[in-house]
Amino acid sequence: SVWPASLSVMASILAAPLILGVPAEIYFYGAQFSYFVLGIMVAIPIFAHLFLSRFYKLEISSIYEYLEYRFSKPVRSLCSAIFALSLIVHIGIITYAPAIVLSEMTAISTQLAVFGVGFIGIVYTTVGGLKGVIWVDAIQMLIILASLLGLIIKGSLNVGGFGEVMRINYQWGRIEGPSFSVIPSERHTVWTQMIGGGMSILALYNNQAIVQKFLGLKSLKHVYITAYISMVVSCLYFSMFVFIGLVIFANYSTCSPFLNGAISFANKDNLVPYFVLSVFQDYPGMAGLFTACVFCASLRFVIHYIKFSLI
């Protein structure tokens, strides 16, 4: 089915650092980063019609097989080895993100949390198979959606509603029109987000964990439909991360936790967990739901890349 597959594709790229990092980026530097959605909308159609269509018509089972077909077996082996090495580093970062959340909210050590994510991911991947991974992805994406919506709604109500969130951010210069500057030192512009962001999305989507899910669909038409649904879902989730950053800023516009010493500037990724504990302190279970959200993101990432990438 295209819907579970679309959610599963999104699950392959929705890692915990996005949940923690994008709101912090918006909090500190404003909403100019939100134009990253332009990169998503440019990259995914190119990925679908230029790359996926070729992979699907060749009836290959992996992108590494295509490299062997197009070039040679040594090229396939070299690219596979390079990706494996980069993946080792990437998985380390991904599994560290939920450890930050858990250590902020409980007494569990970061080392134990990292071990838990890795161990569960390995066991589940070994037992579950491709179909199990895709359906659990869809369920976990709904858990993440519930957590993000709860955070947005409660955080907005704290300051008087969505309109007040926008007003406060506009007043403090966090919401501004698109910047078309070509000055390289400017942090975010439409060009960097559309071109640079688009290139990063193309690189992210052109890996075995994502491509194999598309190749498992029953027709090229389903491949295209799934790609476009995943594009819409990706834009939706990214927009939610951006709005969470605006909500956090609206709540702390006059009492920054960084200025009052509650969070050090060296630990910016602690901003979202700190806000969750603050907002949901009178709502038992909600902080746990957010913790589950972050763990879902990290666990899925580990599962996908162990399962699919090293073929």
Characterization of the model:
The chain has 311 residues and is an all-alpha fold. The protein has one domain (2-308): Sodium/glucose cotransporter (Up-down Bundle), CATH 1.20.1730. Helix content is 77%, strand content 0%. The protein contains 12 helices and no strands. The protein has helices at 2-13, 16-29, 36-58, 63-70, 73-105, 110-159, 162-171, 190-205, 208-215, 220-252, 271-279, 286-308. α3 (36-58) runs parallel beside α8 (190-205) and α6 crosses α10 (220-252). The longest helix has 50 residues, at 110-159. The model has no long low-confidence stretch (mean pLDDT 81).
Secondary structure class reads mainly alpha
What does the largest sheet look like?
Answer: none
Q: In the CATH scheme, what's the topology name? A: Sodium/glucose cotransporter
**First CA to last CA: what distance?**
24 Å
Rounded mean pLDDT is 81
Series of secondary-structure elements, N-terminal to C-terminal? HHHHHHHHHHHH
Q: Radius of gyration over alpha carbons?
A: 20 Å
CATH class: Mainly Alpha
How many domains comprise the coordinates?
A: 1
- 3D shape: globular
Q: What fraction of residues sit in β-strands?
A: under 5%
| CATH homologous superfamily caption | Sodium/glucose cotransporter
> From the 3D coordinates, which CATH architecture would you assign?
Up-down Bundle
Enumerate how many helices there are, as a single number. 12
Query: How much helical structure, as a percent, in the residues?
Result: over 70%
Low-pLDDT residue spans: none
The count of DSSP E runs of length 2 or more, i.e. the number of strands, is 0
